[in-house]
Design a protein that fits this description.
The protein has nine helices and no strands. The protein is mostly helical. The chain is globular. The longest helix has 31 residues. The relative contact order is 0.20.
Length: 225
């Protein structure tokens, strides 16, 4: 928590005192200060959705209350804003996330999924923070690979559900991820157009912090398991 407040203080000191700058600060604050217990990743506290409404709400909630998923989607949207392939980057992620959920439901295990998810957040934070980034094709492929692991984790919340809530769940998490990514994309484009693209790199540093925290936690959990 001390890290969070120190990071916010640094960002606030460097952000321009404009409406856009305050909006960025607010978004980063929400990202950093979400309580870590929410990492249970399930709006219904572990219960399997039984209706269309429950499935849809669960799908909407999972990528939001899971801070690692949220951080990655924001990073993908911001990277889209500064990459030649644009919105294709988060779209690739969202499509393969559905495939990853399908793998989980089919009983196919992806090894070290939590480590891979945490590493993807850290990696995309690093990509954002870099001044010279890889080609858009490379970033898109990385986003697609990450989507498999994030989607695999999403599958845990819906495993064993009936077809109707399952379809609703897929629709919910696909819709909310696209909405978050597009919002981040639009904010990133505004920053670039206003010649404040450096803020995108600083957002990358914040996401690096989130990813590093999750990666350290995942490594510790794997060592203690």
């Amino acid at each position: 928590m001390n890290y969070c407040f120190a990071t916010l203080k640094l960002i606030r000191a460097r952000l321009p005192q404009t409406l856009l700058g305050r909006g960025v600060l607010l978004a980063v604050s929400a990202l950093l200060l979400l309580p870590l217990p929410s990492l249970a990743h399930h709006p219904f506290g572990g219960g399997t959705p039984a209706t269309f409404a429950e499935g849809f709400l669960s799908g909407l909630g999972h990528p939001v209350i899971g801070l690692d998923h949220l951080a990655f989607v924001v990073a993908a949207g911001l990277l889209a804003a500064v990459s030649a392939w644009g919105i294709a980057i988060p779209i690739a992620f969202v499509l393969t996330a559905m495939a990853g959920t399908g793998l989980h439901l089919a009983g196919i295990t992806l090894p070290l999924a939590e480590l891979a998810i945490a590493a993807s957040v850290l990696g995309f934070g690093v990509l954002l923070a870099l001044k010279n980034r890889p080609q858009s094709a490379v970033i898109t492929v990385l986003a697609a690979l990450a989507g498999l692991f994030h989607g695999f984790a999403y599958g845990e919340a819906i495993f064993g559900a009936e077809p109707m809530p399952l379809v609703a769940y897929l629709a919910g998490f696909t819709a909310v991820q696209l909405a978050i990514a597009i919002a981040a994309f639009l904010v990133g484009r505004q920053l670039v157009q206003r010649s404040t693209a450096l803020l995108v790199q600083r957002a990358g540093l914040v996401i690096c912090g989130v990813g590093a925290t999750f990666l350290a936690t995942a490594l510790l959990d794997s060592l203690l398991a």
